Amino acid sequence: MHGWTERFSARHGQAIVTRSGTRVTWTSPDGAIATYEDEPPLEDFGIVLVRRGGYAVGRVEDGRLVAHKTGTRYVQGRTKAGGWSQQRYARRRANQADALAGSAADHVVRLVPGDLRIAGGGDRALVAQVLTAADRTLDPGLRWLEVKEPRLASLERAVRDVRSYAVVLNEAARAR
Question: Where does the signal sequence lie (predicted)?
């Protein structure tokens, strides 16, 4: 956070910092305002990333990724065929997505203890399906992670993202 605060002050002038509980607000002379929740970084949590075609599940202890499993499962894309073929392909796609969710759920049960907070990313419906099958729930207090391909690199980036501060900037702060 130290580097960010220096850059904010360099761009907008010396800010006045106020605290209200865990919320910190930086107000600069040029009208730029930045707020964030000043809570200690989360140390132990699980991560579930799922998109059609792949999944990544991880467990984080003491801020480090200590166990993980990634995998791929073919899920057919949409087709322009009409009539019976379209329905047949839709059923096949649903069955393939169910198999993907089942595989990912097995790894969630194996790697992520039930008492850990869980962050999710990727396809919201598939993550919900995986967590339901694993009898786990997503922690609504953790930010949703944007993921293109759920791989090991995505898990490592997710660890940093979950543990980082989410800073909200007003229009004046975004303009520079």
Answer: none
